[in-house]
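Summary of Year 1 activities. Much of the first year was spent building the evaluation harness for sequence design. The harness presents a backbone, in tokenized form, and records the residue chosen at every position. We chose the following record to illustrate the format because it has been used consistently in internal testing since the harness was completed.
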């Protein structure tokens, strides 16, 4: 048996799979985000450990863990977890959607070496500018940094005592030589750090360490359980849905929104604001366009109108042409294609006729238009996508998925009911590490149905997208 742990923004998910990759137990522990100042987004790593204890206890209630041989890790990317020489956390972790380091990111990105070596823009949400912010504003903390760990890698540190990361997660720090799959000493020096302050690196399917004996005894696991390198949340999700070869792609409607395409070659185009990262598997890379608020935007709106997000979308009926009202989902800035940490969300062109269903459609359409932006950015790099797998909580809304399929003019396959996300992909990586097997086990899930584009509405969505882009450019300079 194998365990997958996925440390997300809103919770920690755990799954237990057997040798046939069937899920036999699962558990979830919620997490909260603190936003003490505008643009800040933090979590206390102590809460991650509490959540880990909770999900492991829940798995043990559902099934014996005595046959577990491997554990894989997945997690939210880009977080800065600062550790001192005693292994203690110095401050709350600055999360992927924390944008306080805009100034530091711009300064780093102005140095051509960062794009040349990492293949990516230095976004404000990446790890290096966050640590740069600490250097500028909290030099007392900066001087005590012994290790900089990504969120899932702090779980590994607690599980094994080893400071290790994988290539896919490390690629989102702005310190990795993404082509060579190794830390860049040059980029670390530019941020006043050294390789000694970075975790060791392994491939996502390789062994990164062994579970502490005390924890194994506490949870009823055998000695010698290996911990796989794992992956950033999207790379692990790709392993979960079998998006592991060139031409494979998925669209994820999670807290953030992602268009993800696997590649067997390194082909960066930083200017497009497309992310080019290592995959969680050896000799494989991936490109993705990232929307900072996808399902998060719908959940924000649902909370404001006092209704459940699922209820709002279920009552919409058949797909309609976009209305005049527009929603820009930039609640915390945007990445692809704008690299704009300062833009904020907006409703535009509301009138007296716009009731709750109309505004709900506007929110769904706004995120849909943002996916078109990402798709066009990916196309500009030479990436070709002809079919997508739809995953994430938002993919349960047929209205929303049909809108995206129509706007992209592309079919979207929906897997059979089941969890094929980051936790499942992490469990697969745990299986690979424990048995020394490769990507062949990462097969595509059975497809329950395919949602085809409504070609009668494709032109209407294209027109609405043009107005959406114009609205962004009209509003971007407002403060």
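For this record, the design step produced the sequence shown next.
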């Amino acid at each position: 048996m194998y365990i997958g742990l996925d440390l997300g923004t809103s919770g920690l998910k755990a799954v237990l799979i057997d040798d046939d990759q069937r899920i036999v137990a699962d558990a979830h522990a919620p997490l909260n985000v603190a936003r003490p100042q505008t643009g800040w987004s933090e979590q206390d790593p102590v809460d991650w450990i509490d959540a880990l204890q909770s999900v492991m206890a829940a798995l043990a209630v559902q099934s014996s863990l005595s046959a577990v041989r491997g554990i894989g890790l997945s997690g939210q990317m880009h977080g800065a977890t600062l550790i001192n020489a005693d292994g203690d956390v110095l401050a709350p972790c600055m999360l992927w959607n924390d944008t306080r380091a805009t100034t530091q990111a711009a300064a780093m990105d102005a140095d051509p070496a960062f794009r040349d070596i990492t293949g990516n823009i230095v976004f404000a949400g990446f790890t290096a500018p966050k640590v740069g912010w600490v250097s500028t504003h909290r030099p007392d903390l900066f001087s005590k940094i012994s290790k900089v760990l990504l969120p899932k890698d702090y779980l590994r540190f607690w599980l094994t005592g080893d400071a290790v990361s994988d290539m896919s997660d490390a690629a989102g720090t702005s310190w990795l030589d993404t082509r060579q799959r190794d830390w860049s000493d040059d980029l670390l020096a530019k941020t006043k750090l050294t390789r000694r302050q970075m975790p060791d690196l392994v491939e996502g399917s390789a062994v990164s360490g062994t579970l502490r004996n005390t924890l194994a005894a506490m949870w009823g696991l055998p000695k010698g359980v290996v911990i796989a390198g794992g992956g950033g949340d999207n790379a692990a999700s790709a392993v979960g849905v079998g998006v592991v070869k060139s031409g494979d792609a998925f669209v994820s409607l999670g807290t953030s929104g992602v268009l993800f395409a696997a590649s067997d070659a390194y082909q960066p185009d930083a200017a497009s604001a497309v992310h080019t990262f290592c995959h969680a598997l050896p000799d494989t890379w991936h490109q993705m366009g990232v929307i900072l608020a996808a399902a998060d935007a719908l959940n924000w709106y649902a909370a404001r109108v006092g209704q459940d997000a699922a209820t709002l979308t279920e009552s919409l009926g058949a797909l309609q042409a976009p209305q005049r009202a527009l929603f820009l989902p930039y609640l915390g800035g945007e990445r692809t294609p704008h690299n704009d940490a300062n833009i904020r969300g907006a409703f535009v062109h509301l009138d007296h006729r716009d009731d709750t269903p109309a505004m709900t459609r506007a929110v769904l359409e706004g995120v849909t238009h943002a996916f078109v932006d990402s798709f066009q950015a990916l196309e500009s790099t030479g990436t070709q996508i002809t079919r997508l797998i739809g995953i994430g909580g938002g993919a349960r809304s047929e209205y929303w998925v049909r809108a995206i399929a129509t706007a992209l003019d592309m079919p979207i396959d929906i897997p059979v009911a089941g969890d094929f996300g980051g936790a499942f992909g992490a469990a697969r990586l745990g299986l690979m590490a424990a048995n020394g097997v490769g990507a062949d086990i990462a097969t595509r899930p059975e497809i329950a149905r395919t949602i085809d584009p409504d070609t009668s509405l494709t032109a209407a969505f294209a027109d609405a997208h043009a107005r959406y882009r114009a609205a962004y450019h009209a509003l971007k300079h407002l403060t």
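The chain has a mean pLDDT of 94. Quantitative recovery figures across the full test set are reported in Table 2.
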